[in-house]
Amino acid sequence: MEYCALLTEWGFSDLVHSFVGAIFEQGTDDVQTAFKFAMLQHNQNVSSRKFEFQAYVDVINTADAFKLSRLICTQFSRGVFSMLGAVSPDSFDTLHSYSNTFQMPFVTPWFPEKVLAPSSGFMDYAVSMRPEYHKAIIDTVKYYGWRQIIYLYDSNDVLIYIKYWFQAPSACSAPRNDLELLKDLKKNEDVTPVIARKAINKVCGHLWYVSEELIVLSFFDDKVGNETKKKMVEALKKEGADFCPKRINVDIENIVNKNLDDFVTSLLRLQQIYQGLTPGSEIFQVQTVRRINNVSEALVFLRGIEEQSRWTNKYVVLDCSTETAKEIVVSHVRDISLGRRNYHYLLSGLISNKETIICPLLVLAMGIDTVCHRQLLESLE
Predict the structure, then answer these.
(1) Domain count, the chain
(2) What are the backbone angles phi and psi of residue 353, rounded to the nearest 5°?
(3) Whole-number mean pLDDT of the chain?
(4) 347: closest CA among 108, 152, 71, 98?
(5) What is the pLDDT of residues 216-245, one digit of tens each?
(6) Residues of the domain holding 102
(7) According to a count of CB atoms within 10 Å of the terminal CB, is the N or C end of the chain lower?
(8) What's the CA gap between 161 and 188, in Å, rounded?
(9) Does one domain contain both 179 and 239?
């Protein structure tokens, strides 16, 4: 239904017949079903609808760039005013490029990767229906007052980001985190060149805390050594630019050899920071990080934690596939060796079943106790 709402906002409510093109990757039956249901519901609502959709639907292997390009041209020739659908990460760039070049809106349930930032100055015609949830996870953890996190994940892709992600609430550590993240990405470029390069480009667009005005927050970072801070004090004697950009440009090729003191200038700027900013403090810490390959590994790991400290509260973030996360929670409820009231789970994925869709952030903040045992099993199965 949100497809229809988005198109209405673009000013097509006065059209009697509106043609849309839909391209789906093979194996996305759930997304196709949701699309067909939304179209059917809208077109059958005779009393309130002001226009009717006619969709041209194609299901292909979108990894074939040549076939995808021909299909896009065919869709354009049909007179569609918008493209809809879900494609693989490898083919998203192709469709996204066509969308921007011909100014044809492309609506997708989610982005396989970030697209042009609003600050880039270019009009972006790709629209994602799913918001980014990483900051929401951090905000949720802060809201519930969790002080220590047990983090379980099922993909190595997260390793390079996890420590920076969970240190994000600390303004003091932000300059160091940004610089170290860039260094790690640069070092990883030979292993995964495509992913690393795209990640570097995106991070470079958000280097607010490495600017001349905010880099001095590192003086309050306990993890920055005294030698580095001494060099930063010496660097304060360097004359800064008359105009200090909010976001700096860095030499990526030499970033591995850079340190925090290389970005510090102007004693006046330090005085401005003291007067205008109150450094933050870390709200929570990552107690344990563990990669899991299946549900059994997760349960073995949780039993080990249970043996070490049975009565303390455990706050677990499950950053894994939907099915794995569901199975972990259900298996925990059924496992008599694991505690009930002192476990709290935060699931980062979309949880759904035949009757309901639970929001992307499912928080069992009340713990798993015997009262909610039956209801939990019924909702997740």
Answers:
(1) 3
(2) -145, -165
(3) 66
(4) 152
(5) 555 556 666 677 666 666 655 554 444 344
(6) 2-128
(7) C
(8) 12
(9) yes
